[in-house]
Amino acid sequence: MQIPRQAVLLRIFIGENDRDDGRPLYESIVLKAREMQLAGATVLRGGMGFGHSSRLHTAKILRLSEDLPLIVEIVDSEERINAFLPVLEGIMSSGLVTLEKLQVLQYGAKA
């Protein structure tokens, strides 16, 4: 699979405790992206953050499992990302979703 040079970054901000039908939401997002054959997805775990509630989430020693912030990033063509958005909307109850146009310089092995 080749990503076009002009692509889109889909960035999804959620929390570790967010769920989709009993499973971690980040897991559902990655599996659905794979099922739809998007180019790839990465889940990044944040050490500290806050969202619309302004509740602070931190990885300090005494609060190690306190719903840390997660970011799921997916890069693909604008058309494929746009096709994924309704699926994402169907499984997310809260969170922040951003889209960013970008230029891909390299993906996968060079031929």
UniProtKB/TrEMBL annotation:
Superkingdom of the source? Bacteria
- Tell me any Pfam family this protein matches: DUF190
Q: Which InterPro entries match?
A: N-reg_PII-like_a/b (IPR011322), N-reg_PII/ATP_PRibTrfase_C (IPR015867), UPF0166 (IPR003793)
- Name the SUPFAM superfamilies for this protein: GlnB-like
Q: Which family does it belong to?
A: Belongs to the UPF0166 family.
Q: What is this protein called?
A: Uncharacterized protein
